[in-house]
Design a protein that fits this description.
alpha+beta; Acetylcholine Binding Protein, Chain: A
Amino acid sequence: MRFLPGGRGAARPCERSHEAGARCHVWGRAAAGTRSALKARRRQPRLLGQGRTTGHGGGSGDMCGQRGGIWLLLAAALLQVSLQGEFQRRLYKELVKNYNPLERPVANDSQPLTVYFSLSLLQIMDVDEKNQVLTTNIWLQMSWTDHYLQWNMSEYPGVKNVRFPDGQIWKPDILLYNSADERFDATFHTNVLVNSSGHCQYLPPGIFKSSCYIDVRWFPFDVQQCKLKFGSWSYGGWSLDLQMQEADISSYIPNGEWDLMGIPGKRNEKFYECCKEPYPDVTYTVTMRRRTLYYGLNLLIPCVLISALALLVFLLPADSGEKISLGITVLLSLTVFMLLVAEIMPATSDSVPLIAQYFASTMIIVGLSVVVTVIVLRYHHHDPDGGKMPKWTRIILLNWCAWFLRMKRPREDKVRPACQHKARRCSLASVELSAGAGPPTSNGNLLYIGFRGLEGMHCAPTPDSGVVCGRLACSPTHDEHLLRGAHPSDGDPDLVKILEEVRYIANRFRCQDESEVVCSEWKFAACVVDRLCLMAFSVFTIICTIGILMSAPNFVEAVSKDFA
């Protein structure tokens, strides 16, 4: 662009200004090539001539030249954009002119087409243990080189890449082999990005439902491995060489139930009986660990507390009448928790879940506690007429177990001194009875009997009798002999009747004492059984809790990460 010369203060005629404006008008029309620019340039000289009739004509020419340069640059940019759109349109026509999407795009049909496959895991959406289905959000990544989709960038300047719908060009038919989706192919078909060298990149996203074997043996401290097997559905290894690339988890969204431990991949080749060529596939293994905080707070800890309540059955007194009720209530509570676990777990017999083993052992403990409680109540409320305690039961419970548990009989330390010696026998023959005048009575029917000689009476020890809890035990046979040997003339008939009544009362007290002794033995045996079962069941509960729960391989890791 050339500007017209001019000096300071020199005035030029209007014709010079009109001439410069006309020249700028010609340049602008040639550069713009548009109707709007032409109209603007036609109006520009007229404005310059009207506004600058005198004065600095050179300044008007300079301004017109600058505006013409701006319009020239703008026109060049518009021309380049329009030409680029024309290049892209012409390139699309040239690429799809004789293109067949059914044809494998290789230069030599005897050579396999290499396809690089990878995936990007975004989210583990759901793990259905009951139906054994894994739901994930995945972006697939496939790349290959199309021999027929190449161009020279010098012939099509500015066109670096183009995009084709997936049905317009050839693409590999890679599917998820272990798909559990109703449509089988759950990908969203996107465009294929192609550059000038023929490199094609296909990134279809999708919500994939895959079948996965859920091993619930260590539930809720389990680690699951779900496989995602991808491969071509119709091409063999001689036509399509599927190569694996590492999976991308940089955009992974954490899951509240599962921790992603890794997603390693492996390329496999499988031979079928129908064909000699191998069929390659790429298998990614989604390794994830279950987060146990939820199940620990809602299943494990309540179960431990309920099993601890089962031990309180042995501490509850037998006279309360609630031992059986407490045991049955605990058993029903465990049954409810067992039903909750059964709803989550799959109906499989391959393995028993760890938490089910713990619940089963706890239910066995509670069930045995109910059985033992029935035995304890049977001992505690034993009928004295049912017989005395067997000798072997007395030795095992009252001697060995009581000594081991450091238990003593309730009245063993507070018994009277007479009960601590051998049993002795006393007879009414050593008691001197005298019927004489006593204190006057109102009805005159009472007979005053005085007992003399009790302080100096002699008790002869016998092997089959004794003093029961400080009471005097008298031989009924000896008393009967005494009463039969007494003649009516030797005593008053009323005295004989009184002696018979005394004998009856003594026998009654003797029977009551013997019944109390039998009952106390059975009650003490019930207490021994309660204490023994409390210790045994406590040890068994602790062993089951620690042994079963800590047998999981990742128990320590789960507790340290989830409960910390």
